[in-house]
């Protein structure tokens, strides 16, 4: 049986950060990955450019049953620490919007950087390796795997959540948590497109490809970003963000003109060109295809501004500012970027990520009940929690 100080299960974002940190402390580390290569989600993230952190990441950008849990790790390994590492490797990057940092070229540079950090401190990788059984006997963990038996003083579970099974996602981490007496909170797909009911699909699928700046709100939470119509439903950053707060049966309300009051705008347009059609005036603010569908039953839509009064202007404003839809559901784990819920953080030390009841057993990254907003927050959680465990495991 081969012996290590630390075995990390999962060569994703959190696992590699943890392994590199522990190995740099002189620990003998093995990373077990059931896929053929490391960091598969990193490679496809951010449209292939990896939104690797957010300069404004703070605890308020995370959902968890215990909102305080993330504070310690995020404050000890910050976005600036990760940016310093990226700078050290001379990986060019830029801020896209709202503090989101992306690679200029390819996400591959981030994976190569993490692999290099692991290798330079001597952490070993074991790919295409299935963990069949984990036992703890006295203070040692014994792992039975498809590549033979291993033992270690510490085991770090970094196997992620359930999103994108085709990239290797498995419920492995939840099963280990339960085996060692930890609670796993109900999981669901998040940062995920919402789907139409059949009758809405018929009506709106022709708008597929239309995108507009908007405020999407559900359950007293809102996000102001773009909303995109797709063949299946609604997507785009505003929808992905709100999907983490939306639950089945909730209406979704979209304000298609969040920065411009439509009634004021129509009154102003009337003063400037009274003979203009409502359709033409609104078409300067919003996509024409969308407006034609939205007001297909509205008898005033093709009328001139000076033929209408404040009551009709208000009706146009209400439709645009308070567009309501009842989504059928989400596209699920197949396309979700993350998983809400997971290992209950009540059973985990927020400083070290170690189980409070099993010495030497750690959980990091997405397997925990910690879910960030869209925009680099999820990777930052992986770096911060991986680093925190790597300091002590
Ligand atoms: C399409 C997409 C785009 C994204 N874009 C961004 C972005 O730009 N910015 C951002 O912050 N977040 C993004 N995310 C979210 C981000 O990828 C995750 O939050 C992050 O990867 C979680 O890191 P992790 O290490 O916990 O898990 P993962 O990165 O999922 O790594 C888990 C690893 O464990 C392995 N594994 C699973 N089960 C087993 C097992 N039984 N045995 C051995 N190995 C196992 C998996 O193969 C995988 O390599 C994106 C997600 C997706 C799906």
Condensed summary:
The protein has 393 residues and is of the alpha+beta class.
What do these coordinates show?
- This protein is α+β, with helices and mostly antiparallel strands and 393 residues long.
- It has two domains: 2-187 and 338-390, FAD/NAD(P)-binding domain, CATH 3.50.50; 193-331, Translation factors (Elongation Factor Tu (Ef-tu), domain 3, Beta Barrel), CATH 2.40.30.10.
- Helices cover 31% and strands 25% of the residues.
- It contains 13 helices and 21 strands.
- Strands 1, 2, 7, 8, 9, 10 and 20 form a seven-stranded mixed sheet that branches. A seven-stranded antiparallel sheet has the order 17-16-13-14-15-12-18. A three-stranded antiparallel sheet has the order 3-6-5.
- The structure holds flavin-adenine dinucleotide.
- Flavin-adenine dinucleotide binds next to helix 1, helix 2 and helix 13.
CATH H-level name of the largest domain... which superfamily? FAD/NAD(P)-binding domain
- Tell me the strand percentage band: 25-35%
What's the CATH architecture name of the largest domain?
3-Layer(bba) Sandwich
The number of distinct β-strands equals 21
Class per helix and strand makeup = alpha+beta
Structure annotation, total helices: 13
Average pLDDT, to the nearest integer? Answer: 97
How many domains make up the coordinates?
A: 2
Helix percentage range: 25-40%
CATH topology of the largest domain: FAD/NAD(P)-binding domain
- Ions, cofactors, ligands: which are bound? flavin-adenine dinucleotide
The stretches of 5 or more residues where confidence is low (pLDDT under 50) are none
Q: Distance N terminus to C terminus?
A: 20 Å
Shape: elongated
Biggest beta sheet attributes: 7 strands, mixed
CATH class of the largest domain: Alpha Beta
Radius of gyration: 25 Å
